[in-house]
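Lab manual, section 2.4: Encoding a predicted structure.

Procedure: take the sequence of the chain (306 residues), apply the prediction step described in section 2.3, and record the output as structure tokens. A sample record is shown.
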Amino acid sequence: MRVLFMGTPDFAVPTLQAMIDHHEVIGVVTQPDKPKGRGKAMAFPPVKEKALEYDLPVYQPVKARDPEFVALLKDLNPDVIVVVAFGQILPKEILDIPKYGCINGHASLLPMYRGAGPIQWVVINGEKETGITTMRMDEGLDTGDMIEKVVIPIEEKETGGSLFDKLMVLGGELMVSTLEKLEAGTATFTPQEGETCYSPMLNKKMGNIDFTKPAKELECLIRGLNPWPSAYTSFNGKTLKVWDADVVAGKEDAEPGTVISVTKDAFVVQTGEGALKFNEIQLAGKKRMKTQAFLLGNSVTEGMKL
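Recorded output:
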């Protein structure tokens, strides 16, 4: 099939690679280059970097709905447009161009977790499973008819990062399967019905740990925000990132945020329900480390308040 690919971040790269391996990719559309790092040098989106490896034409419209860009897509005449984390909502003028429509790979089991942050939110919310859904796009936000799904369990110590890595590989494999069915005329289209929820974009403020909440809820938050934007608290006036913690028994008479026990390997902080044993942390300006190593150079005592 003649595939036009639309995507931007790392998550989209394995699907682009799968399209290159199995189809004729006639062009790649991605977001404009952006300044990155302290030097603010212009950086290519990961999808653009992959496209340039194969000398594929790259298009970077500021707004995909611009008439000139829509006209360009019509001239390209793709059989299908594959969309993975592109970052712009496509207008009807683009959705109607390809023979097989615009097919999106979304990192959740739709209709649940529509929106920009499904991978992290399923971990934050303590879900037991998630997956990838392919759908034929319509003018809504992740509301199109579903075509295929693949389901995977969420492991006990799953993080947003580990789940991201699993799903981005599965996304490419599922898209290959979906396009095969579309071309063979065997694809089925299932309307999204029933309960839905929205998964908004993450932001750094979300990571500020509120110790009045239950320990289990906070442990899920810590895993979901790992590696970005990360969960954090304050230690002696400095930001302390928390990378890994376990839910343990607390002390009912202790105030949330209070250190209730310290061993050579870890320390335990009271929450609104139960407590958290900090296993891996990072003080501002220092490297990420096991709490055992942190305690060798920092004094943590019972009764200390985070």
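Check your result against the sample. The chain has a mean pLDDT of 97.
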